[in-house]
Every structure is written in structure tokens, then in C-alpha cells.
Amino acid sequence: MIAYINGKFIQENEVKISPFDRGFLFADGVYEVMRTYNGKIFKIDEHIKRLEYSLKEIKIDGFDINNVDKIINELISKNKLNNDFNIYLQITRGVSSPRMHAFPSKEIKPTVYIMLYPLIHASKEKKNGIKVQLEKDIRWTRCDIKSTSLLPAVLAHQSAKDNGASEAIFVRDGFITEGSHTNFFAVKKNIVYTPPLTNFILSGITRQVILEICRNNSIETKETNIEEKELRNYDEFFVTGTTTEIKPVIRFDDWIVKNGKPGMLTKKIQSAFKEYTLNF
Predict the structure, then answer these.
(1) Which is nearest to 242 in space by CA: 179, 189, 197?
(2) Are 178 and 143 contacting, i.e. CB atoms less than 8 angstroms apart?
(3) Averaged pLDDT for residues 95-119
(4) 3-state secondary structure of 201
(5) How do residues 111-152 score in pLDDT, each as one tens digit?
């Protein structure tokens, strides 16, 4: 597979970065994950807008955000893929030596890396639902930035996996925030609830699409805090993400939701999402 690194299109196994790259030393960078449907990049403008926000928030300059679309499409063309795929893009502050916490005193070029990789469809999980594990949210307070500093999310997700769960759902001060790599939704009396966007929650592109789908299908939504202690009062749950799409949640730790099957409204939204991606 051909990848893009700092202006060059080369084989993935030939990609190299400096040990003085601040992304390697400090996780001083941001990233985006996109995907295609029917060969078209889904919501690329929204992804680029979020990338621009992340770059601005951590003060990385020197990269022309307007070139992202062009670079990705050239990369796709060079790889001549027939099936749909994911797109990973990462931008770090760049290479600076000697190692020091402060930003470099002189201007440096950001390191820009883009790769394509296969989709994992997880059809059974989307159809049958998943188990999730509740985890204390110990992440930093700027989860609205799509930072490459993901160790707390990695550890939480691994803990969930070790216990037979598919995702970790974070709880902060008694309230649900989001998953380790997903946004969280709950349903009660045919109303769809999701936590409001704050510095503790990433503005998920699929999250935005789900809210749009609900509006277009006369499904009432409420962006409001969801208390951990109130979870058993809800009827259905699901998580969303670019690579996740929509997965029903049928179990929290050892608690089985209702009859242990995906809810009717969740399935309706899944169906509407499928139609949306076919026609975007």
C-alpha cells in the first residue's frame, strides 16, 4: 500500500520518522479517521473542519488545510482500490532537537502522514449488539481535541476487551461522557438522548449525522447529561463512530439491557443511516 508522508507518496514499509519528532516524543499532534462509501469519502468537509479546529487548539501552524482533499484523493488514485476503506491522517508539530517540552523557538514544518487501511465491518455486532464496560473517565479535560495522546482510551478499551466487552464507556462525576472511540446514545420512550458537546466530548461526525437523521425522521432528540445511576431507566442504547457506524448496546458489565436484543428505534436509525450513506 502507498502512503503519504511530508509531500511524498511511498510504500508504507518505507515510511520513516525522526526520533526527534514531537509526535513520537510527546504525542504532540492530532489526527482524523475518515472512510468511504461507494468510493466516496464520507463527510470529508466536516472531518477537515474538525481537523482545522484541533490544529488551532494545540497551535500547530505551517500546514495548508486546503490541500487535504487533494492529497487524499491523489493517494486513493495511486492505490487503485476497488473496495471501500478507512483513511487515517495525522499531523504532528514536527521535528525538533534537543528534546524539550516548550514549543521550538524557530519555525519547523509539521509532519504530515496519511494512510489507507481496510474496513472492519463487524456485521454481527451491528446486528446483535455489544457488551460495554463502564470506566472512570481519567482522561485530560480537552477531549474535544482529536489528539494523538490516547493512552487512557487505549487502556480503558483494553480493559473492556479483557473482560469480554467491545467498548469502554467513560463516566465522569457520575455522568456518561463517551466511549473510548465512540459517542454514546440512549433511548427512552422513543426519545433519543446523547450527552451535550463539552470539552469532555469529541464532536463525532457520525454523531452529527445521527442527530440529522433523527430530525429528518421526526424522532425527538435531547442533548442532555445522562447519569450513570439512571441508566437502567432507559430502554435502548447505542454507540456511534466513523468506523463503528451504529452498534446497539445490549449489556453493561453484568447488566443485560431489557431483553438483551437491539431496540426497535435503534434498528430504525441503523436502517436510516444505511440509506443515508447510500445516497449522500
Answers:
(1) 179
(2) yes
(3) 95
(4) coil
(5) 999 999 999 889 999 999 999 999 999 999 999 999 999 999
* CATH code for the domain in which residue 54 is found: 3.30.470.10
Gap between the Cα atoms of 7 and 50, Å rounded: 22
Which whole number is the average pLDDT over 244-258?
97
At which of 91, 118, 145 does a domain end? 118
Are residues 54 and 187 located together in one domain of the fold?
A: no
Q: Rounded distance, CA 271 to CA 180, Å?
A: 25
**Same structural domain, 78 and 149:** no
Per DSSP bridges, beta strands 255-256 and 221-223 are: unpaired
- 130 and 69 within one domain: no
Q: Is 146 part of the annotated catalytic residue set?
A: yes
**199 and 231 part of one domain:** yes
**Are 147 and 112 part of one and the same domain?**
no
Residue 250: domain span: 123-279
Instruction: Please tell me which residue in 43, 126, 131, 146 is annotated as part of the active site.
Output: 146
**CB of 28 within 8 A of CB of 48?**
no
Same domain, residue pair 86 and 18: yes
Query: pLDDT tens across 13-31, in order?
Result: 999 999 999 999 999 999 9
Q: Please answer whether residues 39 and 21 qualify as being in contact, where contact means their C-beta atoms are separated by less than 8 angstroms.
A: no
- Count the domains in the chain: 2
Sign of the four-CA dihedral 25, 27, 32, 35: positive
Is pLDDT at 10 greater than 90 in this prediction? yes
Distances (CA, A) of 216 to 197, 204, 258, 273: 21, 19, 28, 11
Contacts 24+ apart (CB under 8 A), 150-157: 150/27, 151/27, 153/180, 153/181, 154/180, 156/180, 157/181
Same domain, 155 and 106: no
Q: What letter would DSSP give residue 270? A: H
Q: Can you tell me the mean pLDDT for 173-177? A: 98
